[in-house]
Amino acid sequence: MSQEQQPVYNNTTTTAIENGDKKDNKLIILETQEERRDRMWSLRIVYFTMFLVSLAFSVVLTGVWPLLDRLDPHAGKEFMGLIVAANPLGQMLFSPIFGYWSNKMKSIRLPLIASMAIFCIASGVYSVLDIFPTSTVKWWMFFARFFVGVSSANIAVCRSYLSAATTLKERTDSVSMMSLAQVLGFVFGPALQAAVTPLGSDGFIFQGLVINMYTAAGWINVLLGAINLVLFFPYFFKDRRVAAKEQMIIQGKQTEKETYKSVKIDYTTAWTLILSFFVIVFNFVLLETIGSSLTMDQFAWSKGEALYYVGILMSVGAFIACLAFCLISPLTKRFKEADLLIWGGFFFMVIGRLVFIPYRGDIPKLAVDREYKMENGTIAFYDEDDPIVLGCPVNSQPWCATTLQLQFPEFLFGFVISTIGYPIGVTLIQTIFSKVLGSRPQGTWMGLFTGAGCVSRIFGPLAVGSLYTRYGTTWTFTITCLMMFLPMIWLYLLRDRLAIEEVDIKTIEMRNLNGNSTKIQNGTNGLIKDKTVIINENETNDEQEKFISNGR
């Protein structure tokens, strides 16, 4: 074997020999050590981008209404709802566009730099809303949040790149890390907003700009966005994709395009996973939407108590979710991903909704209206924290008088089990979806996938809020439980098609090379071609040298 043919054997290099004439064995190296370092660094930058997108959404969320009310007291809460929906709306509309764009580019660098530039500009506009006249400021806020949503369409690009820049064996761990980065963004966002609260609503003037507890969050986004943009410059970010090359080696194809065109997409499974993603996100935003009002109605908590205790509950839930993300990798080594998705993700979510359906106890404490008439005919108001006005408002929600109370132990259990099921479900849906698509460019498909999640975030709060107000806990949680149960059954029926067989080129054992080449039987997905021998990196260097010597 000539010196220039000699591969470097280490834990980061994978070598394949495509059998032909033994004298002309062709060595194909998946990646060098330097390329692997570049790839790992590029994935870390993508994780940071996902963290920043989540942070940008959550850091200003708690301050949207107070800031809008301060800038335009006549805007109203209905317009505030439009502003909150503007972010996922922009993301939904532009996710397929960014995904398609990334498919047409050799590198994801340009789409991501463009998205971060939009992010910085939109966050800057949000931070200087004080300069706009009262008559139009609400629309400036709307468009600022809309274009922050447009910039967050880069999630589709990030998901597509993660699928292309990881091997099948790495995919689950990488998707878990990406999901964890998103959760941490949602956790640190409100904490960051709380950290700048001491600035107050007046704040201070810096270079003619108002820096207060509302605008400081926007400027933090600008700073982090600028850092993120710089990280995509060629010096820091190098686009390294291995998924297609991995399959090219395994299948014995000559080009990457030939590789992914040889495997057709299972459209039924792909669209099932998109629908499942929509359903699981829809159900998760349920508690975010009605969490405070639900606890106030069922447990007679005041507004302050609801915000305090639900805030604590959300923080604990985020911690539990982080633990669940960390457990996904070891669990997938013991159980099939499809089974873990069905029983650890969807089944837990179904149970979480099922226990929310009240079945014991009495009706909740009924509240009276704050407004009442005194003996002399004067209209007076109870204090909002007066015990008499706390509870389920039977006048505006007639179901309060006939529906049993949701008990606190069931509420707590349902919340905890849902925060375990959601991260497992959402991570494995993304993982399996990327594997179903194969090694082909996934930008457009990931755009559709991301868009489905955005639709949930837009219509979920509207639908759940209306359903709960009109029909109460029994109907709300029965319907959402069925929404989770039906996709779970459908996924169970498709479980064999969800089980994408992983053939890691690092772990296919060496066999003899005398005479005919070793034949590796085709897997259920037809990803492996006969007459391909892969060198197992777990073998020692001496054994590898001996193996190649026998093949001369």
From TrEMBL:
InterPro entries listed in its UniProt record: MFS, MFS_dom, MFS_Domain-Containing_Protein, MFS_trans_sf
Compartments reported by the entry: Endomembrane system
Residues annotated as domain Major facilitator superfamily (MFS) profile: 42-499
TM region(s), chain numbering: 45-67, 79-101, 108-129, 141-162, 174-196, 216-237, 267-286, 306-328, 340-359, 411-433, 445-468, 474-494
CDD domains reported in the protein's UniProt record: MFS_MFSD8
Membrane topology: Multi-pass membrane protein
One Pfam family of this chain: MFS_1
Entry's Gene Ontology cellular component terms: endomembrane system; lysosomal membrane
PANTHER family with a match to the protein in the record: INNER MEMBRANE TRANSPORT PROTEIN YAJR, MAJOR FACILITATOR SUPERFAMILY DOMAIN-CONTAINING PROTEIN 8
Entry protein name: Major facilitator superfamily (MFS) profile domain-containing protein
